[in-house]
Amino acid sequence: MSHPTADGAPAGSPARRLITTGLMLFALFFGAGNLIFPPVLGASAGPGLPAVMAGFLATGVLLPLVAIIAVSTSGEGIVGLARRVGRGFGLVMPAAVYLAIGPLYAIARVTTVSYELTARPLLELAGIPVGPWALPVHALVFLAVSSLIALRPSRLADRIGRWLTPALLLLIIVLCAVAISAGRVIDRAPEPAYAAAPVAQGLTQGYFTMDVLAATVFGIVVLNALRGQGISDQRRIVAYTSGAGCLAAALLAGVYVGLAMIGARTPGPVNDGTALLRAAAEDGLGRAGVVIFGAIVLLACLTTAVGLLSAWAGYASTLLARTSFEGQLLGAAGVTFILSNLGLAAIIQIISPVTLLLYPMTITLITVTIVDVVAPGHLKAAYRWGVAVSGLLGLVSALADVGVAAPSQALARTGMWDDATGWILPTTVAVLVGLAWDIHRGRWTTPADDKSDAEEEITHAVASHLTQEASAP
């Protein structure tokens, strides 16, 4: 996930606008943290890599694309979509999503990744012993710089992101080409989880990109960018967003496949994507390659952290009127500092049950929103029953992930349950039954129409602040 710009799609021909918006979406989704998962898949999957990648691309690429399209058709981000289920859910769900893509995971992830891919290898190249002090010092400096940029919005982050994204993409292409052409696939036995359920494992790893959650939060910024160019017709907005989303999805898929192929050809610990990438960069491009790669990753992480810190602070300070933007931003940086010092593996362990809970509900919301486009009005039971079932079954998966396995084991006795995909069929049934009930009862209410002024303010304030962060002079 990377920081969006407000003027990412300048006026011009339709083709140019489509391409620039697609590149904007790619920058939005692809942050340095997304580098670490595909190499792990390539090293861990063994002969089952195609099946694993199919699952990963489904949740890491296809679903974010669908989420962007859902946001474009509804004109609402996660606050508005969650509001369709009910007032209480409309407050709790967005808060959980913002926490997950903010201080509780995503910011800590990019802080740690920037250390592993930049600070640590540069210290090692310089012959400086890497002790327990290195990560805390890096995190302190990194978050201080990120907070200063986010506290005083300027075009600096916009300029870095605008030039960085093509540079990062070009370097990844070079790295993939060198590593793939120079090496052969290493004969590794698949890790047990990948051997037992390759598609399900790929789906779960795709969750950890957090891009579906990010799409529901930042998708509204893409709409504002298009509207800022004078595009007001809803059909044109949906067409541009869909076309640009397909371009971004194709780029993401290509990058992910290339990184997975690097993992399959690089010796090293199969569960450490940063170590695999460091080894591939040094083997393929030499010492200079490690330095250049590390510098670009550092800048990518910096712009991502600026965007996510700003997003959380804008949301939280609007929701909690007595707190300031500055206070929320510094508080998020403090929480991130603590979590980032736990290490990347610990961060993923903390967020894993949260993603297993949030993703089924978010995917359900997105799916029903797409259905709602062709319905004669906003649905009611389809939203509520689908989210209730997906949330309950997501909770079962989350509990199993933290060691409370009894509910999951009970469902597994049916022969139709696994913790990654078991929620899909029951939720589909619940949505279809809810849709039939809505049609039968003639419930064509429009929850968004009776949204309170405060809730309306939350939706627009978050997008407005992100836009200001990128475009302020």
Notes on the protein architecture:
It is a single chain. The longest helix is centred in the middle third of the chain and has 47 residues, at 273-319. Residues 3-11, 444-456 and 466-473 have low confidence and may be disordered. By secondary structure, the protein is mainly alpha-helical. It has a single domain (14-352, 452-471), classed as Up-down Bundle (Amino acid/polyamine transporter I), CATH 1.20.1740. It is built from 19 helices and no strands. 76% of the residues lie in helices and 0% in strands. Helix 8 packs across helix 12.
Strand content: under 5%
Identify the CATH homologous superfamily.
Answer: Amino acid/polyamine transporter I
Radius of gyration, CA atoms, in whole angstroms: 22 Å
- Low-confidence region ranges: 3-11, 444-456, 466-473
**Structurally, how many domains make up the residues?**
1
Classify the fold: give the CATH topology: Amino acid/polyamine transporter I
Structural class category = mainly alpha
**Number of helical segments with 4 or more residues:** 19
Looking at the structure, what is the overall shape?
globular
How would you state the average pLDDT, rounded? Answer: 81
Helix content percent band: over 70%
Query: Secondary-structure element order, as H and E?
Result: HHHHHHHHHHHHHHHHHHH
CATH class: Mainly Alpha
The number of distinct β-strands equals: 0
Give the terminus-to-terminus CA distance. 24 Å
CATH architecture label: Up-down Bundle
